[in-house]
Amino acid sequence: MELSPTRQKLYTIIFGTGTPAGKRFDMVLIYLIAISVLAMILESVSVIEGRYGVWLNAVEWGFTGIFTLEYLVRIYCSPHPLRYMRSFYGLVDLLAILPSYLGLFLAGMNYLLIIRLLRVLRIFRILKLVRYLSEANILMRAMVMSRRKILIFFSAVLVLSTIFGSLMFLVEGPENGFTSIPKSIYWTIVTITTVGYGDITPQTVIGQFIAAAAMLTGYSIIAVPTGILTAELATEMQRERTSRRCEDCHSSGHESDALYCRYCGTPLSD
Amino acid sequence: MELSPTRQKLYTIIFGTGTPAGKRFDMVLIYLIAISVLAMILESVSVIEGRYGVWLNAVEWGFTGIFTLEYLVRIYCSPHPLRYMRSFYGLVDLLAILPSYLGLFLAGMNYLLIIRLLRVLRIFRILKLVRYLSEANILMRAMVMSRRKILIFFSAVLVLSTIFGSLMFLVEGPENGFTSIPKSIYWTIVTITTVGYGDITPQTVIGQFIAAAAMLTGYSIIAVPTGILTAELATEMQRERTSRRCEDCHSSGHESDALYCRYCGTPLSD
Amino acid sequence: MELSPTRQKLYTIIFGTGTPAGKRFDMVLIYLIAISVLAMILESVSVIEGRYGVWLNAVEWGFTGIFTLEYLVRIYCSPHPLRYMRSFYGLVDLLAILPSYLGLFLAGMNYLLIIRLLRVLRIFRILKLVRYLSEANILMRAMVMSRRKILIFFSAVLVLSTIFGSLMFLVEGPENGFTSIPKSIYWTIVTITTVGYGDITPQTVIGQFIAAAAMLTGYSIIAVPTGILTAELATEMQRERTSRRCEDCHSSGHESDALYCRYCGTPLSD
Amino acid sequence: MELSPTRQKLYTIIFGTGTPAGKRFDMVLIYLIAISVLAMILESVSVIEGRYGVWLNAVEWGFTGIFTLEYLVRIYCSPHPLRYMRSFYGLVDLLAILPSYLGLFLAGMNYLLIIRLLRVLRIFRILKLVRYLSEANILMRAMVMSRRKILIFFSAVLVLSTIFGSLMFLVEGPENGFTSIPKSIYWTIVTITTVGYGDITPQTVIGQFIAAAAMLTGYSIIAVPTGILTAELATEMQRERTSRRCEDCHSSGHESDALYCRYCGTPLSD
Fold this sequence. Notes:
Main location (chains A, B, C, D): membrane
CATH topology of the largest domain in chain A: Helix Hairpins
Strand content of chain A: under 5%
Organism (chains A, B, C, D): Pseudomaricurvus hydrocarbonicus
Oligomer: homotetramer
Number of helices of chain A: 13
Keywords (chains A, B, C, D): Ion channel, Ion transport, Membrane, Potassium, Potassium channel, Potassium transport, Transmembrane, Transmembrane helix, Transport, Voltage-gated channel
Distance between the termini of chain A: 37 Å
GO molecular function (chains A, B, C, D): voltage-gated potassium channel activity
InterPro entries (chains A, B, C, D): Ion_trans_dom, VG_K_chnl, Volt_channel_dom_sf
Helix content of chain A: 55-70%
Mean pLDDT of chain A: 79
């Protein structure tokens, strides 16, 4: 499907990031999203809502209008509108405006809970920012590559939490706040991740002993995801470094700022 | 000892993981274990137990039956039944069904505590999952290789905890919650691992000073297991990567998805 | 601009670190700053202030005099006085003495809050120490080099905190302490960084489930800054270790196995 | 100074670790220290002290006798008795027995506090174990090598804590628990190290904002000591690994347990 010149130009500005106009568009959008999210966060503070509620409501509708326009233009200038609408970013863009309109639709009725839900849902507009964060691709690649290992690690953490949680439920029992195994598992996760709220704490000597064991376990397995990611990141960084080759002696591993091959002295091309 | 064809076939399915049937058997078992553990966790919630207790009891016996069958078939088709029964996984498989039967045996009596113990013990059925987790062998190897260093590290943590615990017992004393040295050691472990429940906190100025010193110590030794494991993991990963060699120029360090030697261009065998 | 011999000599002592006199001057200054900050910290303890207030006040004015003298001499002997005054260290040196004089100026009036503010502001005198800390340039360089990645990481943490905070505000609501989205975001940061005060804790089952998810997320992303910095530090350390210099272009940072300078191609001596 | 054969033999057993007798002596001593420390820990529990106090007292004197004997024999068989007595381990060995005798000396008087102090001081006997832990020399070397960097890091943490603490004292003030700057610094260390007791928490909005900033700072600088140590450890491990070279093909990078060169199959010399 061939695009008209106008649509092609719009596409370069809105979807592209290479041209100055495209970059300016992205910057403006980032600021708009940030301000819009800030306004919604402030709206949730009852003191501010009471005093500036009308203003915040107006601001909110202004932003909804802008993001609706952005969504429609994106559909208009995309070469594959349906594919865009079904993509992750298309759904996020829709989610960013839908709750406001649904709230309008349900305003007559008194479904307070649903309205509250929709209000908060609008904040997922912040996900629109992910489009720009994801350009940090070294981090992403390192995370994707260690995905499987991190999954196995999480399974191990869950198995550990179940075992420690059951033990604590057995030893401490409902009289010390460990009212059920799910709650004990919640306590174990709070402990193993070293968060430690202190809303539930072991009271018996055996319970404190098991808790200490759980902490030391958590303390030592905190090393695992760090180790995995560090090793991957180091590899990623090294690969970036070793992607330059000497054309004469075919050696690699040159720093990105090197001008001459460090093994044979031949000038390096970029 | 030669196995009959039926037993050999069963062995391939149940113990093996290479054939499609073996993989399917493993997947079914993983789901059964997960559901069974979930049912037991829910049973511990008194509200759910009161309402669906009968159903959960029935489900429980169903699972006990399935796992008993699995245990018997494993014994039947294993080429060395006794060795299997005495192995780690054999004991775990036994432990996964024993508490249910013991509970039946003791139901007549009123040993409430023992019944509660047996109920919770059934949850160790989750250890059956370790069989599948342990396939994550890079992680395991890195952990096993840094075993000695981590042990020394834990000894150092225990010595530190004893010293800091005794000091706090001396400085704060029973009137501020540090009722005995074991309790003070428990507090030190809670602090050094940065869990920090806040159930016992230093009240005197000197106590808070020592606590701050303990925290900074903990904060800096948190680096030790991470450092050990990261260094081991990096080595393990590098080894895996460098385990492929070019047959022509004998260079190593090829990525696992490389098809050609990156030094001389010769196709790489697997 | 040519400096007179006296000013040149003073400049070498005060700004330089190479000569014995310069080193001695720096050491004296470090001790003076440390004692002065200590005196101010002690002054904030009401018991000590009540008993030794007069003495601490005298000590304070002594230090203010010394630092004022230092500031004036620095201006006098600097070859570019204005550039020094506008630099980071020049502003810190001014900030270290200004609050004391402002306090004198406002002593007649009863602006208690402002006086308290000025009192505490004097403690920023501790920033004068940064001049000496910043000599630790491996750490600094590693941090500066991973600056961009850490910024992206913080953006990701803020996006995550907003999402988790909004969810908790929705699920737990004002009745369980989550009175507004900003407060919920504060709670999420407390949780994700594994601080876990326990002043606000989830009470509902769904809330505890989301909290556990937030903790595990925090636990796994704690690895990211560590990984980034470790990889950078390892590179920095390796580069420093290989501080071999090219005799021709005087560039450093050559790997230990390099035979030729990577900037000008001259053979490297050992 | 020449030693008599008996003293030489004793020296090999007591100070050496190479002979079977020396190893057995070390093992026995480790167990004795562990049991002795355990007895003292139990003695601090008032319930146990009340019931088994007489027995624990007897056990304690038995151990004091054994360690006194060990100390005297060490002095007797050491080739440089004075140098041993003034060394770190000599002082620890003395400290391990001194409090018991001092306690006897002061038993007539009623200096309860001093007796309590001496009682707890005996627990430093655990430091005798350091002699055996310190054989973990890779860890030690990595720590000693990154000593300077870790010191600079701690200075930076203290400067940060002072600044954040002063700010919190200013913003929250004594009415919210931040009664003085030292207490606020204590709170900042509790927060930055992610311990988070929750005994003092920010109540004002600005205070919570500053607290969140402190947490994120702490979260990101937690990476620094980890990074330093990991980089050092990785270097140490690599050095150990690369210190062996094949004499035939001159390749390096052989594991410490390899017997043959993994590149050409030539037996490796140690």
